């Protein structure tokens, strides 16, 4: 975890009681390698993915500075996710305008979505306009394929990303 704390006392919000559609997901999967789907089903139809499903994937990512999820800190919310035909855009809000962890948070969101979504999706990650003092620089870094690849080659940075994603598989719940 980082040595310098950018926001030592973040506001923590409680998660909504029924935040997401986890019961709907168990009945009908939309992931590429689902063993319940036959080869013919995959070839004939492409399942749509919606805003709530993307939000379920990213809301349980842990903040790099605090033992709280991005949902609890209101860094991400369902309305900040836009889903197009083959494009997903996530806008997130850092807890403070000078947050030095914004790039790392965006990288965690990108890695979680790239690991979870079919390859046909292009993912764009942006800071909420006006929410960060280095908004343009962070947005440029988060959406540059070469910069993202270089960041993920750094073992220390990759280890931090893995720690933030450790419980992301809970899909909105804590383990």
TrEMBL record:
Record organism: Hebeloma cylindrosporum
Organism classification: Eukaryota, Fungi, Dikarya, Basidiomycota, Agaricomycotina
Leader sequence segment: none
Name this polypeptide is given: MIP18 family-like domain-containing protein
Keywords: Chromosome partition
Cellular component GO terms, alphabetical: intracellular protein-containing complex; iron-sulfur cluster assembly complex
MIP18 family-like domain sequence ranges: 52-123
InterPro entries named among the record's database cross-references: FSCA_dom_sf, MIP18, MIP18-like
Transmembrane segments: none
Family: Belongs to the MIP18 family.
Single biological process term from Gene Ontology: protein maturation
Keyword Signal: no
SUPFAM superfamilies reported in the protein's UniProt record: Fe-S cluster assembly (FSCA) domain-like (SSF117916)
């Amino acid at each position: 975890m980082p040595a310098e704390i950018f926001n030592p006392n973040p506001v923590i919000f409680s998660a909504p009681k029924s935040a997401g559609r986890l019961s709907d997901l168990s009945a009908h999967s939309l992931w590429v390698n689902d063993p319940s789907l036959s080869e013919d089903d995959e070839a004939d139809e492409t399942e749509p993915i919606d805003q709530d499903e993307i939000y379920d994937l990213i809301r349980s990512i842990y903040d790099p500075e605090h033992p709280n999820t991005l949902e609890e800190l209101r860094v991400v919310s369902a309305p900040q996710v836009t889903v197009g035909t083959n494009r997903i855009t996530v806008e997130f809000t850092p807890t403070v305008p000078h947050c030095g962890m914004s790039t790392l948070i965006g990288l965690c969101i990108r890695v979680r979505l790239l690991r979870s979504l079919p390859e046909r999706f292009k993912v764009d990650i942006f800071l909420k306009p006006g929410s960060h003092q280095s908004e343009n620089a962070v947005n440029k870094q988060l959406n540059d394929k070469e910069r993202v690849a270089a960041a993920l080659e750094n073992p220390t940075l990759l280890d931090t990303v893995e720690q933030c994603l450790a419980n992301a598989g809970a899909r909105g719940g804590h383990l």
